[in-house]
Amino acid sequence: MTETLLTGATAATADTGPEGTPLGEGRMVREDCWREVHRLFHAERRSKSEIARQLQLDRKTVRGILGELAWQPYARAERPDTLLAEHASFLRTRAPEVQYSARILFQELRRARGYRGSYETVKRFVRPLRAAEQAAERATVRFETPPGQQSQIDWGQAQIHFRHRPVILHVFILTLGYSRRSFHEPCLGETLSQFLDAHERAFDYFGGHTREHLYDRPRTVCQPGGDGRVIWNATFKQFADYWGFEPHLCRAYRAQTKGKVESGVKYLKGNFLPGRTFVDEQDLREQLDQWQREIADARIHGTTHERPTDRFAREQSALVATAGQPGFRLEASQPRRVAEDYLVSFETNRYSVPFTLIGQTVEVTRRAGQLHITHRGTLVAEHEEVPGKYQVRVRPEHGPGAIARTARRVMSSLPSERQRAAVPEVEIRDLAIYEALGAPAVTA
Question: For the residues of 301-355, what is the DSSP string, one character each?
């Protein structure tokens, strides 16, 4: 089960704004909260008081939830006389996207939807939506996921110094949902290649990966699509399919859905960085590795009340094993556009292909130190992979000059004018002459 959020008694439903189930005290509760209350009471035999404290609910709310045999969403009837009735669905969807700005919503209604009402009417409509969202954020409680089920992934940023030179540090963090054990990878950027490489180093570190990965919505993972559709980054989706995990996204504008890794980012900034100095990137990595082993993995976690390393001992066998599987970039074909100089770029180096493919898309695959470049399934070029960066490898037969060179080779194989002058010319005669020479003489 993908990790979801519980919200307290004043929380909103995920798709209908502030609407929910009215209980005895007039508050509203989401379905996931209702289910968790019943689970804690019936499966774990918790008391109503314990449940109320854990989920930050009023005890009366807990009693009301347990009195309901089934959860039913509350559907508030729209007032037929309001000018906003026909725009209500749009407002509930759009409000979180503009951070509940009544001014922006009013402008959009007037400009694109023909609304003729007042700004104050829009403010009154948005006010409970904003209040419900704020209450939901205050009352967030995380579900637990079973071993090997889910990881949460995020970046953390901070400014550090290498000696006296300021550097913006980017730290990739992957946190296992059950054990809370985290992997930290310092980077100097957040490019797609760094993002995918950090995943693979995390897989090596843990000896495997979980079946689901939960992300925020960076462009290295997806792009915004209309009508709630997810447009996956093609290379990232290929990476996920290659390793066999299922990517999931946080609810839009609710990054706190991945609260476990968010807590890990805060812990890194609050416990590792303060008071430390670093000589260079290697020194940073060494200090981070030591802190990860001796402090982060060995502490008593505030939520689980266990050491992450102890819980990991129970989770490790549930991970999807990755040992022996080559890295994604060593096997996956990568599309490249052929430039005007008939070169394709691959990991900062450039390699030639036949010049007739300029402007076309080719597929580059790395195997055993060789680059195989294909076009529409046909192998068009092979190169030995170049070490280092910013190198260029061009095969002479790929350039337009190859045609002229071939013509010159053919011409050079023919005899020159001087050679032809040195050979005696042979007269070509009609065959009838030789026949006449062989005939018997005629006497008078």
Answer: -TTTSS-HHHHHHHHGGGSEE-TTPPPHHHH--EEEE--TTSEEEETTEEEE--G
- Per residue in 305-362, pLDDT (tens digit) is 899 999 999 999 999 999 888 888 665 677 888 888 899 988 788 999 999 999 888 9
Are 72 and 58 within 8 A, CB to CB?
Answer: no
3-state class of 358 per DSSP?
coil
Q: Are residues 9 and 132 in the same domain?
A: yes
For residue 273, give the DSSP letter: S
425 belongs to a structural domain: no
Give me the pLDDT at residue 190, please: 87
What SS3 state is found at 364?
Answer: strand
Q: Which amino acid is at 386?
A: V
Please state, as a whole number, how many other Cβ atoms lie within 10 Å of the Cβ of residue 245: 19
CA distance 109 to 119: 10
Residues 93 and 163 in one domain: no
Q: How far apart are CA 153 and CA 216, in angstroms?
A: 8
Q: Which two tokens stand for residue 402?
A: 């190859």
246-249 and 212-215 beta bridge pairing: parallel
What's the token pair of residue 389?
A: 């960066």
The yes-or-no verdict on residue 244 having pLDDT over 80 is yes
Domain that holds residue 311: 150-321
> Residues 258, 251: contact at Cβ < 8 Å?
no
Interatomic CA distance for residues 280 and 165, integer angstroms: 10
**pTM of the prediction?**
0.50
Tell me how far apart the terminal alpha carbons of the chain are, to the nearest angstrom.
124
Q: Of 83 and 168, which is predicted with more confidence?
A: 168
Beta strands at 150-162 and 246-249: parallel, antiparallel or unpaired? unpaired
HEC secondary structure over 381-402: EEEECCCCCCCEECCHHHCCHH
Are residues 120 and 245 both part of a single domain?
no
| DSSP symbols for 149-218 | SEEEEEEEEEEEEETTEEEEEEEEEEEETTT--EEEEEES---HHHHHHHHHHHHHHHTEE-SEEEE---
Query: Does residue 166 share a domain with residue 83?
Result: no
